[in-house]
Structures are given as structure tokens and as C-alpha cells.
Write a structure and sequence with these properties.
Helix content: over 70%
Number of domains: 2
Radius of gyration: 21 Å
Number of helices: 17
Number of strands: 0
Shape: globular
CATH architecture of the largest domain: Up-down Bundle
Mean pLDDT: 81
Largest sheet: none
Low-confidence stretches: 189-195, 400-404
Strand content: under 5%
CATH superfamily of the largest domain: MFS general substrate transporter like domains
CATH class of the largest domain: Mainly Alpha
CATH topology of the largest domain: Growth Hormone, Chain: A
Structural class: mainly alpha
Length: about 400
Amino acid sequence: MKIQKSPILIFLGNTFATTVARGISLPFMSIYLASNLKLPLGIVGAILTASLFISISFNFFSGYLADKYNKIFVMFACMLFFSFNLFVIPMISKAWIMIFILSLIYISNGTLNITVKACIADWVSSEQRPQIFSLNYTLSNAGWAIGAPIGVMAAKLNLTIPFYLSGGISFSMLIFLIFFLHSKRYFKNNTNSNNPPPSINFFETLNILFKDHILIYFTIGSFFMSLIFSQSSSYISQYLLSVYDADFAYKILGVITPVNASLVILLQYIISKKLHKKNLLLSLSLGALMFTIGIVGFWIAGKSILIWIIAMIFFTFGEIIVIPIEYIFIDCIAPENLKGSYYGVQNFRYLGGALSPIMAGFILSYATPTALFSTLIIAIFFSLLFYFIGYNDLKKINRFGEFD
């Protein structure tokens, strides 16, 4: 189906709006918990980590929901849960309830992201998917870049305002989508297929996923890659605080963070047009090389702001290349009726991002600061290794004839 004749453009607009909503409130959750609930920082960290791990563990079921039920209705339910729980947050005073509510927020957010990817697979041809995946990622970055400053301004008035504002934006988008997508033809699953495969139950789906060793290799590779870029600002700030001081850390992050965001927003879609299924491993290797150059740059930058900027430019090019490549890999191996489930498994890569700050803190506490960067380079090697194994197996079985 042509993009212009599908609701994909509306879904991409929804990605931008809902990411703005998340950017307004979620980055300031730790400040809210510490200030309003008067919780110790250790408890705050435990709440956020527990909520994140619960939501990531739900990814198996999130993907199944996107495959089993009407994708648009799943999307509506996610947005409703997301909005409702944001409205509820200012009313909560107990830590264990906050873990439950935050888990629902993160689960709703994760399921929404998986469902959007599954919709892209339904409504967009395989040739166009790399660009659309990249555009979706670009709009997410733009949403975070816009939402965070709005959240800062709202929080200055009252720390509860960002949650009401985020919930309001998400709920407004939900109402808009319900009225816009009134045509019944948009409410059919498997839109890309005239003869959709039969639906299977959750346990049958799990059995297929666990037996797909190529999916497992790619997911492990994604985990190590996520360790590199998913929380880069966190481990860079930890390194700067360890070696220098808070003022220099703020100065460097204040420079390299806009560089990263600007390059992703400007170049992600353009570069994705050059990525094709027949040069996946070469492109991934190039992205890994860019990451390696960037990390070495961080390693040797010292107090040179120019070197920090150059290093971040290389690092960002790695991110721009790798993100769509990971989606293309999964898209190549996922059966048409299990796209959501496969994307759900891929989301386990976020465990790498979740563990990245912990890993950095441990290394900086018990080893030399530069050991952090050598560890990250080793992680890049392991990522490439698992992707190479998976890719080699994929070519051997030539699944779907993608690599003739």
C-alpha cells in the first residue's frame, strides 16, 4: 500500500506528539520523586530501575498484542493508559504504588512503539521501511528535543504541571486519531496481505521466538550496541564527574548533546535512503567503526571542547547508521503475522541501555576511568560478532529469499 493511502503519516505525527508528551514529564521523574515525595536518591533509583525492568519484561506480551489484536485499537488503549496514569501520578504518595504506575506508563509507551513498528510493516513496502523507520526515530528525537525544554518551564511553575500537560497532549492526540481514522478500512489487521496467515496463541508465539536462534543472535547484538548509545549522555557525564568536576561536565554535555540531537534530526532520514538489505553487514560495520572513533575521541579529548565535538559527530553518525539497520535485520527475519512479536523481542536491547549507567558507575568506582571506554569498545566487538553469526546463518537458510 502506498504511504499516502495509509494512516502511516498520521502515526508518524502521533509519534512526534506523544514523544513531546514523554519529554515534558519523564526526564524529570527523579526530581519529582525526590522533591515532592521526599524519597532518598537510592529509593528513587530503585523505583525507576524496577519500573523499567518490569516494562522491558512485558515486551514479549506487548509484541503478541500487536500481532493478535487490531493494531489501531491496541494503539488507542496504550495512549489511554499512558494519559490516565500520568494524570494519576500527582495523587500518589507511596513508593510501591509509584512503581506500579510507572511500570504501566513504560509498558504503555513500549507497546505503543512496538505497535507503530508493526503498523509500518503492515502498510509500507519492504523497500520503503528503512526510511520510515528512520523518520519515526528522527521524529522521536525531535519530540524529546522539544518536550524537555517545555517540561523545564512547566516544572518551574509547579512540579505536577508537566504530568498534567503530558497526559493532556497524549489524550488530545487519542481523540484526534479516533475522529480521523473513522474509515473502517483502517481498522483491519494484516493490511499488507490479502491472505493473512492464521493467528496463533501466546505460547505458540513464544515457542517460535525462543527457537529462532537468528532472532536471539540479533537481539544479543542489539543489547551490546544499546550499551554503547542508548544512555551515552549518562556514562559520559559519570566519566566527566569522575575525572573533572560538575562545571566541566555541564559545559561538555551542554555542547555535545545539541550536536547529537541536531545531526540525528537533520541526517537520519537522508542517510537511511542509502541503506539496503544487501549491504546490511557492511553498513553495520561502518556504524560500529563510527562508534569506535567517537569513543576513542572521548577517551583522548581531555579538556578540549573541539575534540569532544568532533568525537560526538563520529559517534552520532554511528547512531544514525545503526538504528535503522537493527530494524531492517529484524524485519528481514520476522514472519508477516509475527512482526510485532519480533519487534517486541528486539526491545530487550533496552536492557543494555538500562545497565549502561550501572556498568559505568561500577567501572569508575573500581577501575581506572579510561577502562570505561575500553569496555565500550569491547562491547562493540561483541555486538558485531553476534550480528555476524546471525547474518551468516540467515544467508545459509536464505529466509524469504532476501539475500539472493
